[in-house]
Amino acid sequence: MKTIIYFLLLFSVYNCQTKKDFSIKKEKNFEKISKKDSLFIESELLKYKNCLFSEMYYRGIKNTYKKLGYKQEETYAKVKDLTYYFYGGDFNPKFMNNDFNRNRLLNKWLNDNTYEPVPEIAEGSLDIVRALDFYNSEDLKHYIDSLRVIEYERIIKNHNEE
Q: For 111, which DSSP code?
């Protein structure tokens, strides 16, 4: 009996979430977005997410070296990371410049003490772990979702102006 109640509760929660998402999409007129535009947005958001992974990793390494007392010229890569150029595309560049939410999100993850070096290995780092956890985090998912809404609204506005 408990199992049946559990599944009914789970089913009702799932249905409520689905209806909520649908109503938001309908309310925002996202159904007006063509499949081509939608695929473009998703492709560009994934590219941007890859850029954010790269930035988190680079900033993590920089912080680790600074904490270990290394001088910049000794340790930081002398070759510039070209992730942003590789994934450039036609994505709205405003998201890559002076985005307060992006900077706040990156700083939150950079200041997370979970990724402090392991005491037994004084010169080790968990920078790649931090970057991977960040890439797969709910924080980044919500941030990317907020950009998705902005892009959908921008495309709808552009179509309405034409």
A: T
